[in-house]
Specification:
The complex is a heterodimer.
Chain A (H helix, E strand, L loop, with lengths): L1 H13 L35 E3 L7 E3 L11 E4 L2 E3 L19 E7 L3 E3 L2 E3 L3 E6 L5 E13 L19 E14 L2 E13 L5 H7 L2 E2 L2 E2 L4 E13 L3 E18 L4 E20 L2 E16 L10 E16 L2 E16 L2 E19 L2 E11 L4 E12 L4 E12 L7 H6 L4 H4 L13 E15 L2 E25 L7 E28 L2 E15 L1 H7 L5 E12 L2 E10 L2 E2 L10 E3 L8 E4 L3 E2 L2 E12 L4 E8 L18 E9 L1
Chain B lengths: L1 H16 L10 E11 L4 H5 E2 L3 E9 L4 E13 L9 E11 L2 E4 L2 E16 L4 E2 L8 E2 L3 E15 L6 E12 L5 E15 L2 H7 L1
Antiparallel strand pairs in B: 1-3, 1-12, 2-4, 3-4, 4-5, 5-7, 6-7, 7-10, 8-9, 10-11, 11-12
Classes of the chains: A mainly beta, B mainly beta.
């Protein structure tokens, strides 16, 4: 299969490209694909990032710096940050946006201040299409299913399987009005998912039978957004309210299993920008409230965790000739409560950057930021340059040093040290001392961008990363398989230690626009641990060394398009779960004859092929998308506790009036 | 299986090119009604039997071939007493594409491929433990599962009449954990229309 794909790729590369008058090369951040259906699908489109999931609906992201269990990239919706991160678990499906609205994404893996906010592990900014003039309405409906349901064989106890994976239905609606410079819009989304998971048996036995009722193993996310704004040549003012409620089975690493939880988010943001000559001044007030608790609680567990943040920020930019200088400051006042804990934190951030075009072919850029809390401070800086060596070859390089406050790491151990006694409810011990060090890392990066032809580009990048100190949470899990009483995964003592090591990341990218209707692109990522402590090496075994994505888009008719996306991911090893290796996944309640494979600490490498067809109707007002994921039905597993994402199909209909 | 399917579709496409005649996109709209009998024997059809299925479908000309969509209803009754009351109804909803070519005057053969969902509705969903003791776990009475279907339809059109008769064979596979495969021979009638302008505008 790989050989066949390679031959196809070679063939396509050898085709004579055609310079299309109306065509243009896809920008790295444009969404030129119909594969994306849900917000979390966006994570698969960023070559440098990798994601792990247990339920196939929510993901933990590794943007290269902190791994799956570290700080997550900051998410922005139209330049305003949203914080869906709960103990470093994050769910993009809490975004009240449809993929049809998002016409462009921009992202970075570098920890920088971006749009007046410190993005601890890089950022992902989703840019939506501005409302059309007058009144506009749109909506979409999505539904899907994974194969291998039991069907009528559920009547045969020797053949029964527990598969119940249902994607959706998802609903999205939008109403917007625009008149001259003013606009207003309201949006609502409801997303539902019934996941298949190796832990279903455990869930069925331990959580879902509450008050003599079986509750469906189901995730429900309801989100809403209201926004008003004004745009002119000089002013850009926006005010936004956002709400998200998520009934979920959240995978918190310290618990060694998924926990039925409610996570919620509220946001109020006011942002204003004024541009006058070379000056641009921006200010923002942002308040957000996050909360988390148990649901389906048959154990009398209690999260009772909530956080209220007020963020004030102000920045200015001066641009003249070949120079651009920016500087600013932000102040974060945070009030966090959980069980007996009450914690206040104030953090001030100062930041600045200089961008200078020294010569028509050479530019220089420097960034500096300082994060100052009550008892500690963290500094970060970067220095980079870009050189256009020939008309087709651009070479860029940079060095980066980054520190991250313990508070910013959002580790559950931070709250434990301040009196949050959640772990004792679950019988999880703490292996002290817990590290409270800042994360510190330095990197050197070299990038080559080569324009092989007007619509063909090659991207080569190498990055050497040294972690002076990386706090790694480590949670060994024991097998607890006692009938009736078993928890299946029983976490042992939680460790949180500062580790040191070196990593090397290499990226190769190739994209080609063969003509106006046909394009394809290839990305390869190789990530290696060069040296480090044993814990450091074991932690990065959880991320794949090699990944490859190949995407092919064709539009044979103006109202029809096809996409093919192929993903290769090498194997990963999860040493925290080695006590479960070889155990049979089955119900611990013997009256339910459910069984589903054997647990393996090593998730296998896989090749996944997704195909999508999109047909427009009614002068492109109505779009229908039919997508088959994992066409070859290979074993696709992103986390050792996670589901095997078998072949699944998704149907989506979108209407715009 | 997938490789065989791809090769078969490719083969049919190449064979069909010689006799293929196609009107412009969206010009003709056809409604099909037929009934189908199950003819294959396997673990599924040996334990569940069904009276003839009922099928209603539509086709519209679209670039190369026809786009189609439809629904087939089948009632399955269990024949193995070990499975108790395992009767269920199946609703196969699909979209598909076919490539018709002329064999002889008025006689066309259309091989095609359909993708869709098989919605299953169980009259008495299974409960574990069967004695319905403490915390009895009932399975969902409604399931839906991805299914694909390979078809070959022979159609005869007498003269210029919009009415046609057709017969076909369909191999349908529903991808449950233990797949459900059925082979169906169908007989039915079709009625062809010039696509109304409002429908043509909608489809474009």
């Amino acid at each position: 299969m790989i050989r066949l794909l390679f031959i196809i790729l070679l063939f396509l590369c050898c085709l004579p490209w055609e310079s299309a008058a109306q065509g243009s090369a896809e920008r790295r951040d444009s969404l030129g694909t119909s594969i994306i259906i849900n917000p979390n699908d966006l994570l698969q489109t960023i070559p440098e990032w990798d994601a792990a999931t247990t339920d196939g609906f929510t993901y933990r992201v590794n943007s290269g710096l902190y791994g799956f269990y570290g700080p997550q990239p900051t998410v922005y919706l139209d330049d305003i940050p949203i914080d869906f991160s709960f103990f470093n678990w994050q769910n993009l499906n809490m975004l009240p946006s449809s993929m049809e609205q998002i016409n462009r994404i921009s992202y970075s893996s570098e920890p920088r201040v971006y749009n007046q906010t410190l993005s601890r592990a890089g950022y992902l900014n989703l840019h939506t299409t501005p409302p059309d003039s007058g009144l506009s309405l749109s909506g979409s409906f999505t539904v899907g299913n994974q194969i291998e349901d039991p069907g009528p064989w559920s009547y045969d106890s020797s053949r029964v399987t527990p598969n119940i994976d249902r994607r959706g239905p998802h609903y999205f609606s939008n109403i917007a009005y625009r008149s001259s410079g003013w606009f207003a819009r309201g949006q609502f989304s409801l997303r539902q998912h019934q996941p298949t998971n190796l832990n279903n048996h455990h869930r069925i036995g331990s959580y879902s039978y509450v008050d003599n009722v079986w509750h469906a193993v189901k995730t429900t996310v309801s989100n809403g957004l209201a926004e008003i704004g004004y745009q002119s040549d000089r002013w850009n003012i926006r005010a936004r309210g956002l709400t998200a409620n998520n009934d979920e089975y959240v995978f918190f690493q310290p618990f060694g299993r998924e926990v039925p939880s409610i996570t919620g988010y509220r946001q109020l943001a006011v942002q204003a920008e004024h541009e006058s000559g070379p000056w641009k001044v921006s200010g923002r007030y942002l308040a957000h409230r996050k909360f988390m608790d148990y649901r389906l609680n048959n154990k009398d567990y209690d999260f009772e965790w909530q956080q209220l943040d007020h963020l004030f920020s102000l920045s200015s930019r001066y641009r003249q000739d070949n120079m651009r200088v920016s500087s600013g400051a932000s102040l974060e006042i945070s009030d966090t409560r959980g069980l007996q804990m009450e914690s206040q934190q104030v953090v001030a951030t100062l930041f600045g950057s200089v961008h200078s075009r020294l010569h028509a072919r050479h530019t220089l850029e420097a960034d500096l930021s300082a994060d100052i809390a009550a008892h500690e401070a963290a500094a970060s800086f970067s220095l980079g340059s870009e050189h256009r060596l020939t008309g087709a070859w651009t070479l860029a390089g940079g060095i980066d040093y980054n520190e991250l406050l313990y508070y910013r790491q959002e580790s559950s151990t931070y709250w434990y040290r301040r009196g949050y006694t959640l772990f004792s409810q679950l019988g999880i011990g703490i292996d002290t001392p817990l590290s409270s060090k800042r994360n510190r890392a330095g990197s050197i990066k070299l990038t080559n961008r080569i324009q092989l032809a007007p619509l063909t580009s090659l991207h080569l990048e190498g990055k050497y990363l040294h972690h002076y100190a990386l706090n790694i949470p480590w949670q060994v899990v024991a097998h607890h398989g006692q009938q009736y009483q078993g928890l299946y995964t029983q976490p042992q003592d939680l460790e949180f230690s500062s580790e040191e090591g070196d990593r090397l990341n290499v990226r190769l990218g190739f994209s080609q626009q063969l003509n106006r209707r046909l394009s394809h692109q290839l990305n390869m990522m190789m990530q290696y641990t060069l040296s480090g402590t044993n814990r450091y090496r074991a932690y990065w075994f959880q991320t794949p060394q090699n990944r490859m994505t190949y995407e092919f888009n064709i539009q044979p008719a103006s109202d029809l398009s096809f996409s093919l996306a192929t993903t290769y991911r090498s194997s990963t090893l999860w040493k925290e779960y080695q006590n479960l290796n070889g155990e049979r996944y089955r119900s611990l309640q013997p009256q339910y004859p459910l069984q589903y494979g054997t647990f393996r600490t090593k998730t296998p490498s896989f090749l996944k092929v997704d195909i999508t067809a999109k047909k427009w109707f009614w002068d492109r007002r109505l779009a229908t998308t039919f997508s088959v994921r994992n066409l070859l039905n290979t074993e696709v597993r992103y986390h050792t506790l996670g589901l095997d994402k078998a072949l699944q199909f998704v149907i989506k209909a979108s209407l715009t009036l | 299986m997938i490789k065989k399917t791809v090769l078969l579709v490719l083969f049919l496409f190449l064979v069909a090119r010689a006799g293929y005649t196609q009107e412009g996109s969206y010009e003709r709209f056809t409604v099909d009604a037929n009934s189908a009998l199950s003819v294959l024997h396997n673990a599924f059809t040996d334990n569940w039997e069904s009276p003839p299925s009922l099928h209603l479908g539509t086709r519209v000309t679209y670039h190369a071939g026809n786009l189609e969509a439809g629904l087939r209803y089948t009632d399955y009754n269990v024949t193995n007493p070990d499975y108790g009351e395992a009767d269920f109804s199946s609703y196969f909803i699909y979209i598909g594409w076919e490539y018709p070519f002329t064999l002889y005057r008025g006689l066309t053969l259309a091989p095609g491929l359909r993708f869709g969902n098989n919605f299953m509705s169980f009259d008495n969903p299974k409960v574990y433990p069967p004695t319905s003791g403490w915390a009895a776990y009932p399975f969902d009475p409604h399931e839906s599962e991805f299914a694909y279907e390979l078809i070959a339809r022979l159609e005869y059109s007498p003269g210029t009449s919009p009415w046609r008769i057709h017969s076909g064979f369909a191999f349908n596979r529903t991808l449950t954990y233990h797949p459900l495969s059925v082979g169906l021979i169908s007989f039915g009638i079709s009625r062809s229309f010039a696509t109304p302008s409002w429908l043509k505008n909608f489809l474009k």
